[in-house]
Amino acid sequence: MRHRVMLALMVVAAVQTTPAAAQRRGQSDWIELRSANRTVVISDAGEPAARELLARIDRVRETISAGLGDLVRDLDEPLLVIAPRDVNGMRELVGDAAKRNRGLLVAASLPAPYSHHLAVRAGTLESRRAEILMHEYLHRVTQVNVGDAAAWLDEGLSEFWTTIELHEHGVRVGRELPRHARTLRSQRLIPLRDLMAVSRGRYDLAGGRLALFYAQSWALVHYLVTRSASSKVSYAPGPPELDSLEKDFQSYVRAGRFDAIDLPRSDRVAPVAAEPIVRVLTQAEAFSLRASVTVYGEKPGVGFELAERALRLDPSQPLALEGKGVYFFLTNRPDEARMWLKAAAEHPSASFRAHYYYAVLNMGAPLVAQTHLKKALELKPGFAPALERLRSFAKIHPN
Ligand SMILES: [Zn+2]
After folding, report:
1. Do residues 136 and 258 both lie within one domain?
2. Which of 3-7, 23-27, 354-358 has the lowest mean pLDDT?
3. Confidence category of residue 235, pLDDT binned at 50, 70, 90
4. Residue 100 placed within a domain
5. Distance from Cα 47 to the centre of ligand 1, integer Å
6. How far is the CA of 14 from the centre of ligand 1 (A)?
7. CA 186 to ligand 1 centroid distance, Å
């Protein structure tokens, strides 16, 4: 009996020392999971919640891929998802935008130049989480395929394609979203010219008519995509002719028939589902990954702080060095930016972005710039901005 008590005490002692021991080794509460689709989830919500989220995101990605096949580029690009366990973790990533849109505390897309990340609260039981996740994920698909889309198109595409469903023989998309249909029935439409002038992320400017802005953007994409529906519908409609559109669109909305369309299913094969690769992140890595995302957000200073914390733990953390460099780059302090990006680019595991930005800051020193543009291209083959800058040197010094 006494032996058992001793044993129990020893077990308790062992469990209690674990976090401290983990911290001594520099480990954090954050883990990283990588799937065969190149989806990377980092989370501090524990492994079961992170695994569940990874599987859910991979299902979303595979649905889009099966539905649209080669019409969209998606699975060929890696995706980083940051999945904090609570609302505070989401606020760190999303910033003040969450005050304007509470849904962003469930899932948010975080665009950055040349990449796009997602923030998703792990383990949330919010009823619309699947829909919100799909909506935010589609912003990334839009960015990859359409580039910098206008606000109405960006939001309209995200809403329209959230309804995508796979069937045995095909794909159905565009069923009516009742909340939008209700809004459209109860309010006077925004003139299309005004709707199309709303800028991204500034939806408070839509005269306080946020629900109408979303509803109408959805309906307009619905009209443009389903009207052009053929055996090969593209992901995004082309730019519409405004004048004739206004009248046709108004009658479309007044008719109130938002029917789904069927598309053939692509035969693109998804990678075989395999067990994700799981590893524990060091504290420095956990800080710097969050820095690398937040530095492009509304408050780059949050990213700067996180990068500083990472560098206090590991002064050579490449992503944190890059984060500081990017912070100075974005806040227009090129000398400091050059210094930190130099340190980042000299690290053996520097990212394509560190090399590219360092090259951009050294365009006056062609040898340095060309070396780092080439390194950026080794890491991200075909990266257009680097190719363009290399070509600009070839023009100045033709052989
Ligand atoms: Zn959105």
Report:
1. yes
2. 3-7
3. confident
4. yes
5. 28
6. 47
7. 22
Question: 392 and 250 share a domain?
Answer: no
pLDDT at residue 386 is higher than 60: yes
For ligand 1, the distance from its centroid to the CA atom of residue 369, given in whole angstroms, is 37
**What's the 225 CA to ligand 1 centre distance in angstroms?**
18
Range of the domain at 301: 282-396
pLDDT tens digit sequence for 175-212: 999 999 999 999 899 999 889 888 876 666 555 588 89
Do residue 178 and residue 254 come from a single domain? yes
Residues 318 and 237 in one domain: no
Q: Measure 210 CA to ligand 1 centroid, in angstroms.
A: 12
Query: Amino acid identity of 35?
Result: S
Cα 128 to middle of ligand 1, angstroms: 14
Tokens of 127: 């009823």
Dist. CA 155 → ligand 1 center (Å): 5
Looking at the fold, whether 183 and 300 belong to one and the same domain comes out as no
Domain-located, residue 287: yes
How far away, in angstroms, is 28 Cα from ligand 1 center? 32
Q: Please tell me the least confidently modeled range out of 17-21, 23-27, 296-300.
A: 17-21
Strand order in the sheet with 170-173: 165-166, 170-173, 261-264
Q: Tell which of 231, 264, 297 closes a domain.
A: 264
- CA of 201 from ligand 1 middle (Å) equals 9
61 CA distance to ligand 1 middle (Å):
17
What percent of the chain shows pLDDT beyond 90?
53
Please check whether residue 12 lies inside any domain of the structure: no
Least confident of 40-49, 235-244, 350-359: 235-244
CB 157 within 8 Å of CB 137: no
CATH number of the domain within which 375 lies: 1.25.40.10
- Cβ neighbors of 77 (< 8 A, separation 6 or more) are 38, 144
Regarding pTM above 0.85, the answer is no
Cα(276) to centroid of ligand 1, in Å?
A: 29
- Confirm whether 6 is domain-assigned: no
* Ligand 1 centroid distance, CA of 154 (Å): 7
The residue that leads in pLDDT, 131 or 282, is 282
Contacts of range 233-239, beta carbons closer than 8 Å, 24 or more positions apart: 233/71, 233/261, 233/263, 234/71, 235/68, 235/71, 235/72, 235/141, 235/142, 235/145, 235/146, 235/157, 235/161, 236/142, 236/145, 236/146, 236/149, 236/153, 236/157, 237/153
